[in-house]
Write a structure and sequence with these properties.
By secondary structure, the chain is α/β, with parallel strands linked by helices. It has seven helices and ten strands. The chain is 36% helix and 27% strand.
C-alpha cells in the first residue's frame, strides 16, 4: 500500500502515509469541506491517512470516524513540534503532509512531499515557504496524490 513517485531531478519517493491538518485544511468551522470524504476514501486504499489536530472545534473524533482515518490528537502548546514529531515517527521520507497554518510549516518541510493549501482560511506564509507545492483547494491537494503524474509534473526539475 503506497504511492510511488519517480520525479525527474528530484528522485524516487515511496509514500506510505498522509498527514492532514484538520482545521482550515480539510474542515472549516468544524465541517468537512465538500469533496474531501470521497477523495480520502479513494486515497485510503493507497495510504494510511492521519488527521492531526488540537481539536479546536471539539469534533475531531466524530470527523475522523466519519472519514475513516486515524486521529492524532495533539495537546495545546507547541503544536508545530508535535506535528513534526508525528511525521518523524511515521518516517518522514514516506510521508505526504498537507496543511495551511504556521503550525504546519515544520511538518510540511520535513515530509517527503509537503503541500500547502490556500483555502478558505488562507495560508500562512511560512507554510507556503516550507511546502513543495501550493494549491488553492484541498480537493486539488488530494487529487495530486490520487493522480501522481500531476504531482510529478509539478515537482520535476
Amino acid at each position: 500500500m503506497s504511492i510511488h513517485l519517480d520525479v525527474p531531478g528530484w528522485g524516487a519517493v515511496e509514500l506510505e502515509h498522509l498527514v492532514l491538518d484538520l482545521n482550515g485544511t480539510v474542515a472549516l468551522d468544524g465541517q468537512v469541506l465538500p469533496g474531501v470524504a470521497e477523495r480520502l476514501a479513494a486515497l485510503s486504499a493507497q495510504l494510511t491517512v492521519h488527521l492531526v489536530t488540537a481539536d479546536t472545534q471539539g469534533r475531531a473524533g466524530e470527523l475522523s470516524a466519519a472519514l475513516g482515518v486515524r486521529l492524532a490528537r495533539i495537546a495545546p502548546g507547541d503544536e508545530a513540534g508535535q506535528k513534526l514529531a508525528l511525521v518523524e515517527r511515521l518516517g518522514a521520507a514516506h510521508v505526504a503532509a498537507i496543511g495551511n497554518g504556521a503550525n504546519d510549516a515544520r511538518m510540511l518541510a520535513a515530509a517527503a512531499v509537503g503541500i500547502a493549501v490556500v483555502g478558505p482560511e488562507g495560508a500562512a506564509i511560512v507554510a507556503l515557504q516550507a511546502a513543495d507545492v501550493a494549491v488553492g483547494r484541498i480537493e486539488d491537494a488530494l487529487d495530486l496524490l490520487r493522480y501522481p503524474r500531476r504531482l510529478m509534473a509539478t515537482l520535476r526539475r
